[in-house]
Design brief:
The complex is a heterodimer of chains A (about 525) and B (about 700). Chain A is of the alpha/beta class. Chain A has helices spanning about 25-35, 90-100, 120-125, 135-145, 150-160, 165-170, 180-190, 195-210, 235-250, 255-270, 275-290, 295-305, 305-315, 335-340, 345-355, 375-385, 395-410, 415-425, 435-460, 465-475, 480-490, 495-510, and strands at about 10-20, 40-45, 55-65, 85-90, 110-115, 145-150, 325-330, 365-370. Chain A folds into 3 domains: about 10-215, Pyruvate-ferredoxin Oxidoreductase, domain 3 (3-Layer(aba) Sandwich), CATH 3.40.920; about 225-290, no CATH class; about 295-390, no CATH class. Chain A starts with 11 loop residues before the first strand and ends in a 9-residue tail after the last helix. Chain B is of the alpha/beta class. The chains are: A alpha/beta (about 525), B alpha/beta (about 700).
């Protein structure tokens, strides 16, 4: 088949993958109009169906680059191994084209925007469920005859136009594309939709595609640490550097020192082997997050900063002189009042609530205008209360839980770094507000009492794997069903006496930490 | 319709010898006018909504020709519309989505087919089968068989399609039988061209009135007429149809050098079969096949003489027939046996019995066929290599990507007013316990997908409430039924509501009142307030319900999640028996945006004060748990990498697509979720008071850092 000149000996085929509402229909209209005006045979089809509602959808076109009287046979379906140009508005849609065999080294030019519009399954994951982008970049290079991966979305923001126009421009950079930018510009004017913006997009897209320098660099993550004399190993130092300012900002220097001492302790226990360093790094990460747990005071503080006002102006694209009104959605419950009110009030309030159907039943919805003087003052006042955070019941409870966790890491790190790492990582579960946070803490406690504590005492090696699996299970669903199921199974393999102790321990020391700011 | 189809309407005005450029379904619309129809009606649904939208916008043309357009209440009334052609020489067409629409229409269709027609009747079927389909996967073919209606399946080539539309009316009149024509999704959306003819004014129409009503008991569906009618189908109509199809060569036959074998296909399969043949080196790019082809533009009835003539002298033929059962393959087998032609018939043995025949499927099937029969002068090994290579590429691709690419099913649009209702149901279940939810057809069917996964069954359009009738009494708590306003007027009012009242059903019905049949393109419905002629209708869902005697009715704005949760709780727990109806009220956001965007642009130009609302998430407060997304699923509520090196998990983020519907805040509030959300209102063209207050606040609070 190759050897034939696409668009001359056989139709040139183009498949365009987009999401509903990204202007794929308009894009194909532009191309059809341009071809028709140039007297070139073209056929296009699509399968909007229900996919128009933000689902993935494809448009398929076939053309000839020279007009001839006896029209060739045009197909209605893209066929694997028979696609000359594969175009996608999103990196994962590009991956889908590769997966379906529409991208082959003998003929396919792959043009795709590198930004991501995440699929529902990627968004609803309780941790990180996003598809691994670098793999897509590699696959693109492996399977396409010619690859054009660019950040067309960003270019779109700059040019104030949609991605479809930019991709159209990029298509014209392929010498086999049947129509030139002039014909397309005419078509864009003819359709009369956001003409100026789309013309800018057309030109910019072509520039971008032609300019290999702007080719997407794959960022595999890993923040590079500052190059200064570091008492901690590299990875750890990066974490500590990020953490210390956060802790000072959260409480005070003393609190930051306390953090540092805790990390040093782990560092000593874990040692400087590769495994040990990893334990210290992950512990340093989650310790910093846990120690700066979000309570009302923290939330009020962060929400009443000038830097935040600027960020909101940026995100809303407010012009100078355009006032921006900001409304916050709070629903403080007993926990929140407790953090501000003196202890005796807290005790009385909690007792009363327990009598009337439980602490988490009582909430006071507050819609606060934080841009007003009164609203701002209120936030600053609550933020100010942060100075007495150390005296709140919540603080004490959080520190207890932290110590318990750190102690387990400390005890296991020297003998069994793998186990220590698994324990350290469990702190990933501790996040969220209100119900979410309470649920998270419940899961953490369950894993702690059922697996961590027994293992920390017995030093039982293979438990590390169970803990990792349990953490994954805890992140599998909202209601903690997967975790319960897993723990039920896992217990059978670990020492029963330990579990008894764990269970007992869980009863006399229920850590119920919550708090929706 | 909020949209305008003026451009499309223009292409309906083309005269003799001009060139039409456009989609297949629009070409058919033009072909109807060229055929001199007196009336056109139908019910919207992909992939044929476009025909209805354009007709509704083409009043001036229709008035000039005297063509009556009816926006029908459902497919049954669209089919009944064709009753006009039983007594009078009026050509008419009805259009709908099939097979679901044909199911609804089949009562009227059976009677129409039995009575027979004087004027030609064409039923245009949008065969919603395969990729992109939104309905259960069945074939319309069976309806043609059971009612003795003829079924056309034209080759996807606009000149051929238009030509066959005109023939369809002739065929219908020659055999006094309604004709059905099926178009697959891609054919409907296929962009092509054809030479037009001038539109033909019908002989009988609202411009040329009938003054003498026709009575003929022979046309009535009661014995003994019905017996006579069935006999007449066989003795006269069937032979007449065969004769017409043969004489006018409606089916196409192409010779090829490899004439010891051949391919018989549905017309609709032509392009894809040829493309597969090209890939296997069995056809050239102009579509000249090395194998002889029989292209059946008429798939029922088959002409026995044509089939046996094509097969005579061939060792084997391949029948390419999409879907199941294999009606055509069976039909061909029996024709060949009767004619004692010993050609081997392949079909479902090398092609899949079920599912759409996409390019790759046909490629594999065709190569299997070649391997089985190895035609003289074909490099069989070379043919067999092609699909193997493609399979290898796909396997390598899968390995390279490491994991299956996440699927992307459709979901509610950004700011959709139906989404909050399901957030509310999800929240209400925290107290009431899991509920049985009888879902319905419409955008709201997406509630069955992530992140809601609400809806235990779907039984058909407008049948949500009816489908709860037997579950309800067997359930320890009340059952919630869903119904869209589209489904309500389509049949839900009569099949569901009246049934529930008559049987004293104790249950909860949620009616999504977004103002249009949104899933099919925001066509107007009785409760929209006006019809496609922009005339007031004065019909309302609430009035209809109260008129029928529903005692418990609440109207709740969908975006107020807490209020919706409360309404649901009340409906589920009230002592009051009988039917409890919650009208979930808010306009379709797509339609709304389409309407207000230009208005806002104008206001801004005129320098008027406009407040733009957008929601946001504080990136330093979000802990990356994503509960908010699991309760909302809004496309503009997404994730992004955390700017904080300490946080490994991506954080929630509201992108620029946000239309400020407010669901984020409502959910965060109702679910006691998280304080990260904020609502930002940008005051554009601020007034004096705005500027004064802003200045004051900036001075006191501290002006933003540069």
């Amino acid at each position: 088949m190759s050897g034939e000149r696409p668009g001359i000996d056989r139709p040139l085929t183009l498949v365009f993958a987009a999401l509903g509402g990204e202007g794929g229909g308009l894009l194909s209209d532009w191309i059809i109009d341009a071809c028709t005006a140039s007297g070139l045979p073209v056929q296009a089809t699509s399968i909007p169906g229900v996919a128009q509602r933000t689902g993935s959808t494809t448009y398929y076109m076939e053309f000839m680059r020279a007009s001839n009287d006896d029209e060739p046979l045009f197909g209605l379906y893209p066929a694997p191994g028979y696609v000359d140009m594969a175009v996608a508005t999103d990196l994962v849609e590009a991956a889908r084209l590769i997966e379906k065999g529409y991208v082959t080294p003998d003929r396919t030019t792959l043009i795709a925007a590198t930004h991501r519009v995440y699929a529902m399954s990627e968004k609803t994951a309780m941790a990180d469920g996003t598809f691994h982008a670098p793999r897509i970049h590699d696959a693109a290079r492996q399977f396409a005859r010619h690859v054009v991966l660019r950040d067309f979305a960003e270019a779109g923001r700059v040019e104030g136009t949609m991605v479809n126009a930019l991709l159209l421009g990029a298509m014209t950079a392929d010498e086999r594309f049947p129509v030139d930018t002039d014909a397309l510009a005419e078509a864009i004017r003819g359709r009369g939709v956001a003409v100026e913006a789309n013309l800018r997009g057309l030109a910019a897209g072509r520039r971008l595609a032609a300019d290999d320098a702007s080719a997407a660099i794959v960022d595999t993550g890993v923040p590079t640490p500052p190059t200064r004399e570091a008492p901690f190993p590299e990875g750890v130092q990066a974490m500590v550097d990020a953490a210390l300012p956060r802790l000072v900002d959260y409480q005070d220097d003393a609190y930051a020192r306390h953090y540092r001492e805790r990390v040093e302790a782990i560092d000593r226990a874990a040692g400087r082997t590769a495994a040990g360093v990893e334990v210290t790094r992950e512990t340093a990460r989650y310790l910093a997050l846990w120690m700066t747990y979000e309570d009302v005071m923290r939330v009020a503080d962060l929400k009443s900063r000038a830097s935040r006002r600027d960020r909101i102006r940026r995100e809303t694209g407010a012009k100078d002189g355009e006032p921006v009104r900001v409304t916050e959605f709070f629903k403080p419950g007993i926990d929140e009042f407790s953090t501000i009110a003196p202890r005796f009030v807290t005790r009385w309030l909690t007792a009363w609530a327990e009598r009337h159907g439980g602490v988490d039943r009582f909430h006071l919805p507050v819609h606060l205008r934080s841009d007003t003087i009164v609203g701002h003052a209120a936030l600053r006042f609550v933020a100010f209360m942060g100075r007495r955070r150390r005296r709140t019941a919540r603080f004490a409870a959080e520190q207890r839980a932290i110590e318990r966790w750190l102690d387990a890491v400390n005890r296991t790190a020297p003998s069994n770094p793998a186990l220590a790492l698994a324990i350290a990582r469990c702190a990933q579960l501790v996040k969220g507000y209100g119900d979410t946070r309470i649920r998270a803490m419940r899961n953490f406690d369950a894993i702690y009492s059922t697996l961590i504590e027994p293992a920390a005492e017995s030093g039982d090696g293979q438990v590390a794997e169970h803990i990792e699996k349990a953490r994954a299970a805890a992140l599998a669903d909202d209601e903690g069903k997967a975790l319960q199921a897993y723990l039920a199974g896992a217990t059978t393999v670990s020492d029963n006496a330990a579990i008894q102790r764990g269970a007992a321990n869980k009863q006399d020391n229920p850590t119920r930490i919550g708090g929706n700011a | 319709m909020e949209r305008s189809f003026a451009k499309e309407v223009q292409s309906l005005k083309l005269g003799d010898g001009e060139v039409f450029h456009g989609e297949g379904i629009l070409a058919i619309t033009k072909a109807l006018l060229q055929s001199g129809v007196s009336y056109v009606g139908g019910y919207q649904g992909a992939p044929v909504s476009h025909l209805i939208d354009v007709m509704a916008d083409a009043q001036d043309i229709l008035d000039e020709l005297g063509v009556h357009f009816e926006a029908c209440a459902n497919e049954a009334s669209a089919a009944a519309l064709c009753g006009a052609s039983i007594n009078y020489p009026m050509r008419g067409a009805a259009v709908w989505k099939s097979t679901v629409g044909t199911n609804v229409a089949s009562d009227a269709l059976s009677n129409l087919a039995s009575a027979g027609v004087k004027g030609g009747v064409l039923i245009v079927l949008g065969e919603d089968y395969g990729e992109g389909a939104s309905i259960i996967q069945e074939r319309s073919h069976a309806f043609a068989l059971k009612s003795q209606m003829w079924l056309l399946d034209p080759r996807p080539h606009l000149p051929t399609v238009v030509d066959l539309v005109e023939h369809a009316f002739e065929l219908s009149e020659a055999s006094s039988t309604p004709v059905m024509m099926e178009f697959r999704i891609r054919a409907c959306h296929m962009h092509g061209r054809f030479k037009t003819k001038a539109n033909k004014a019908p002989a009988v129409s609202r411009n040329k009135l009938i003054n003498d009503p026709d009575f003929d008991y022979g046309r009535i569906c009661l014995p003994p007429s019905t017996y006579v009618q069935e006999q007449h189908k066989i003795s006269h109509r069937f032979p007449a149809a065969l004769d017409y199809i043969r004489r006018h060569r409606l089916n196409e036959y192409f010779d090829g050098p490899l004439d010891d074998v051949g391919i018989i296909m549905q017309g609709g399969m032509y392009n894809s079969v040829l493309r597969a043949a090209q890939q296997l080196g069995l056809a050239d790019t102009q579509g000249n096949s090395k194998l002889p082809l029989a292209v059946l533009n008429v798939t029922y009835p088959l002409v026995p003489e044509e089939i046996s003539a094509f097969c005579a002298g061939k060792r084997a033929v391949l029948v390419v027939e999409e879907g199941q059962p294999a009606y055509i393959e069976q039909n061909i087998e029996s024709i060949l046996r009767r004619a004692d032609v010993q050609t081997k018939v392949h079909g479902k043995d090398v092609l899949p019995m079920a599912g759409e025949y996409v390019g790759e499927v046909l490629l594999n099937g065709l190569s299997k066929f070649v391997e089985r029969v190895s035609p003289a002068g074909v490099d069989v090994a070379g043919v067999a290599r092609v699909p193997r290579d493609i399979a290898a590429v796909k396997k390598d691709a899968a390995d390279a990507l490491g994991a299956p690419v996440p699927t992307r099913p459709p979901t509610f649009c950004t700011g959709c007013p139906e989404r909050p209702v399901f957030s509310a149901i999800k929240l209400a279940q925290k107290d009431t316990g899991k509920l049985h939810v009888a879902a319905d057809i419409g955008c709201h069917t997406f509630s069955t997908l992530a992140p809601f996964n609400i809806g235990n069954s779907v039984l058909g359009y407008g049948l949500g409430l009816s489908s709860a009738a037997a579950v309800g009494p067997a359930m320890d708590r009340r059952v919630v039924s869903i119904m869209g306003d589209g489904g309500f007027w389509h049949n839900g009012l009569t099949s569901g509501v009246s049934g529930a009242l008559f049987n004293e059903t104790d249950g909860v019905l949620v009616i999504m009142n977004n103002g249009y049949t949104s899933a099919t393109g925001q066509q107007f419905i009785p409760s929209t307030g006006k019809n496609f002629k922009q005339h007031e209708t004065g019909m309302s869902i609430r009035k209809a319900l109260e008129g029928m005697g529903v005692k418990w009715v609440r109207t709740v704005t969908t975006y107020r999640v807490s209020k919706m949760v409360k309404a649901l709780r009340d409906a589920l727990t009230t002592k009051q028996g009988g039917l409890k109806v919650i009208i979930a009220d808010s306009e379709c956001q797509l339609a709304r945006q389409r309407r207000i965007k230009p208005q806002i642009r104008e206001q801004l130009k005129r320098g008027e004060r406009v407040v733009r609302t957008k929601f946001g998430v504080d990136e330093d407060l979000c802990t990356g748990d994503h509960s908010c997304i699991r309760l909302s699923g809004c496309p503009s509520l997404t994730v992004k990498p955390s700017p904080d090196p300490l946080r490994a998990d991506p954080i929630a983020h509201v992108n620029e697509g946000c239309v400020g519907c407010g669901l984020c805040g409502e959910v965060a509030d109702a679910a006691v979720l998280c304080p990260s959300f904020y609502r930002a209102e940008v005051v554009q063209n601020p007034g004096r008071i705005d500027r004064f207050l802003d200045g004051l606040r900036r001075r006191v609070i501290g002006a933003p850092a540069p």
